[in-house]
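Incident log, structure service

09:12 report received: a user says their structure output differs between two submissions of the same chain.
09:20 pulled the input from the user's history:
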Amino acid sequence: MLLRWNRIHAAVRSLLWAAAITVALAGGAAAMRGSGQDLEKPAPEFSAEADGWVAKLIPRGRSTSVRIFFSVEEGTLAEPATRDFNDTSREGVDSKNFKSGLFMLKVDCPEPGGRVQLRMRSDFFTSGTRWYVFNPAASPPWKDAGADSQALDPTMHALSLTVVDGGPLDSDGRADGRVTVIGGPRDSFWGYAIGTLFIRFFGIFIVLGILMFGMFASGWLFRRVETWRARPRVSEKPTVPASKEAPPAPAAGPAPELAAAVALALHLSLHARSTASLAPSSPPGASAWANAGRLGIMAARDQLYRRSLGILANGDRHR
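09:34 re-ran on a clean worker, output below:
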């Protein structure tokens, strides 16, 4: 079981390392693409709202869409359009600073030479966002319009600028009762550089740090599981062996009195037999005198026999 847990642990660590390497390579590729030629984004989509127009687009450096609202006071705002940087001068600006591209706004003034107030709001704007206007008749052609920035809520910012018909912010340069503004929102260079550096460089290390934390957490979890499995179970009850059949009880023996009586009978019987075997044999019906004479003869023979044995033994010693 421990070997299987070690194999699972090794497999999980291998998967985490593979995921970390994949994310690092993907982040490096994204950074290389970001530092090179920009990918073409879809054109903005414009739709009419109750108080103006709204543009839905995907800015440069982002993968999600944002919405920019356009409205005007004391005038009529026509449908906005986009403008390509190739149709303008790049003197003094970099197209990469305009993440959302360029817009061309046309407003009909109440009277020639009048002024209108444009208002743009979006959650894509920040406190450092500026609105730049292109005027081919001015020098330099690009100019910060000096729009007022206002935070509507923590995520929504609004830019407001006043344009005079035929003035320096009017891109057509004519006081003809129509104001044409060519420009777009621009973030500061340092904000763009720091944001890009943080996202494309430090973001990779943040992801790798999260993966490393996951690897350490998984290793700690597996060690805890292995320690828990190797710990003896205190709560387990000792196994009770299977009950064996009890040996049969021995048969009850005879009573002590009976055993003593049988032993006494056997002793008397054996003693009588041994006494009878040692008694001299005599023919039945013999008289006492005959028996006595027989015993005397046998005793004499026995003495003679013992004497002859003694003589033989002494003779052997003398030799």
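09:41 both user submissions now match this output. Likely a transient worker issue. Closing.
09:42 reviewer note: The longest strand covers residues 178-186. Confidence is low (pLDDT under 50) at residues 34-39.
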